[in-house]
Amino acid sequence: MAQNTPIAGSPAVFNIDQSGKWPILLTCMPGLEDLVSRQICAEYPQYTVSETRRGKVFLRVCATIRDLCEIRCADNLYLLLREFEVGRVKEDLAGLSRAISGTDFAPLHALLPRGKKTFRVAVSASRSGDHTYSRYQAAEAALQALLRLDKTFAAGSPDDSDINFRLDIVGNLASFSMKLTTASFRYRGGARMFMPGAIRPSIANVMVWLSQPNDSDIFLDPFCGSGTIVSEREHYAAGKIFASDLSDEAVAATKNNVSPRVVVTKADACRLRFQNGAITTIVTNLPWDVQVRAGEGAEALYADFLRSAHRVMARASKMIVLTGRERAWEDACVRCQTSFAKLAVLSLHGLHPALYQVEIPR
Ligand SMILES: C[S@@+](CC[C@H](N)C(=O)[O-])C[C@H]1O[C@@H](n2cnc3c(N)ncnc32)[C@H](O)[C@@H]1O
Predict the structure, then answer these.
(1) Which domain, by its residues, includes 226?
(2) Is the Cβ atom of 48 under 6 angstroms away from ligand 1?
(3) Are residues 23 and 164 in the same domain?
(4) Does residue 1 lie in a domain region?
(5) Tens digit of pLDDT for each residue in 197-220?
(6) Total number of domains in the chain
(7) pTM score, two decimals?
(8) What is the DSSP track for 27-60?
(9) Which ligand 1 atom sits closest to the C-alpha of 194?
(10) Residue 245 alpha carbon to ligand 1 centre in Å
């Protein structure tokens, strides 16, 4: 759905199937599905997680779209309209069109803005399997079916439409969904500054949740970059929130992205300037990728950071760390006699950063 679409702000309570619950598809970074579904169950017990697949979590909910937009660990949210079988050759696209034509769009009109005569619609498709058609051909077949089905629909493009549909084909199974969220949901509005190496807000949100936030936390991200993690931490009560980075640019970006209650300073994470035992929680995304080169020095940097963190962290405190240099991190932990648990391995454009939990002993 395009930005500012009235659907995203609709307070209409929807209620589509016999159980009174709508099927919702939540997308997240592949590798994070299990943690995201655990987080949803813990934070939103009124929603039911029915299934997970790569990069997808399926929910059944009775809620408003506005309620659903509170789910900060999601990249995007879709209303799952139907799942159907689809063949593998070009001629089967006619069957795909028929299946989409069989979708009952009448209930969806309750979600659309009143007084508008036409809605620009677009279809994005993904396809995996040995089909003789491309994802673009599948998307076009779906779009033409929609235009025939509903006279209020006109062709738009994914960047310029009132309603975005999503068609996912995996082997013989197709699922067809309508997007409920906009880019501003995924990127937390348009005013944020993102620096190279910034993580998605949804990942930062999962990391913060894993740290079990509570209102007495003295929280620190010592490699804050543009402040995505502390910005997510601000949504929970805290004793104090600190962010620091070596780079002036990062410090300025973080100050732009957070409220004045976050204390942002320029500091070396390997020489943290807090009193011994002052910090109860560290959640951080270590420098590791091509934009933020830790290079050959990663293990030494990580070990220096760990020694500094051990000094400033309270007993029985917790650290959640994301890094693409698994080996360097694990070696540094061994070198610093720090026990760690690997929680997940993510999949990001061919890279596989891992998420770790470190417990500081009691
Ligand atoms: C992967 S980025 C963090 C990105 C951040 N999570 C975000 O979403 O914008 C790592 C950051 O570590 C910073 N950095 C590298 N070495 C550092 C050090 N010794 N002390 C503090 N910050 C350092 C870099 O300037 C960079 O901003």
Answers:
(1) 201-359
(2) no
(3) yes
(4) no
(5) 899 999 999 999 999 999 999 999
(6) 2
(7) 0.91
(8) E--TT-HHHHHHHHHHH-TTSEEEEEETTEEEEE
(9) 9
(10) 6
